[in-house]
Amino acid sequence: MSNHSEKPANARDDWTIDQGWSDYTADEHVVWDLLYKRQMDVLPGRAAPEFLEGLKALDLGKGGIPEFEAMSDELESLTGWRVVAVPGLVPDEVFFDHLANRRFPAGQFIRKRNELDYLQEPDVFHDVFGHVPMLTNPVFADYMEAYGKGGLRSLDFAALKNLAALYWYTVEFGLIQTDEGLRIYGAGIVSSKTESIFALEDPSPNRIGFDLERLMKTDYRIDDFQQTYFVIDSYKQLFDATVKTDFAPIYDRMQGKFALKPEDVVANDAVITRGSQAYAKAGGRL
Ligand code: PHE
Ligand code: FE
What we know:
By secondary structure, this protein is of the alpha/beta class. Helix content is 43%, strand content 10%. The protein has one domain (21-281): Aromatic amino acid hydroxylase (Phenylalanine Hydroxylase, Orthogonal Bundle), CATH 1.10.800. It contains 13 helices and 7 strands. The longest helix is centred in the first third of the chain and has 17 residues, at 26-42. The relative contact order is 0.13. The structure holds phenylalanine (PHE) and fe (iii) ion (FE). The site of phenylalanine has 10 residues, from helix 6 and helix 11. The site of fe (iii) ion has 7 residues, from helix 5 and helix 8.
């Protein structure tokens, strides 16, 4: 979500750019369709119902890369959110300001056919397919706005790392417990075929019940599958635990550091799966 170089010349002060929908090539639309189909081979029965409902409500499978304006009109009628195009990663304060105003900044470019599985920078498939469906859920939509406001506030503390861990372990890599079993709501998982299976079914990672402070002091991997996934019981639980809590004392206690490694399991963890860590021990993605 963060990191940046210089603002590109074509970007506005808030770093938004035109999506340039009519400039996508036929092949780029085909890449979206390929990615969409691959994910839909694995997501029914794995993704959270709210995610799948969001996909449907926004008709993201109608073929081709969605046009942001039309999609945003629909999304705005549901929860007041819109999607704006950005060149890629944007500075933290810009990112937080967009979220705080119910605008989701999405990459405009799409990955190439030879990098369907893994890429460093979030593209339009990760950002739109992965993130936007959950923004149709009213509670999650409110959480995301509050996160943006909390992000702006965190800049006054040396707390960005710990707040970023919250985003990472919920918005990007969150799991939710349902009556039918564990389901995925994190965008980084639902937009990856291999991690959708790994996160739910592989014996390697830990799966641990959500605990705000536990999670915010846990380091995470940005270059490979997670070694721990945190599991919420409901979006309301996530909302209540974060929006109704003053993070200032938490930030003070954490001192901008991670006390726990990604794979750690500690006393008082609500362990759902104690992972073998076999995948990471074997060298991970290599
Ligand atoms: N309550 C947090 C604070 O005091 C703000 C926040 C809300 C952060 C929701 C993340 C998610 O800073
Ligand atoms: Fe993301």
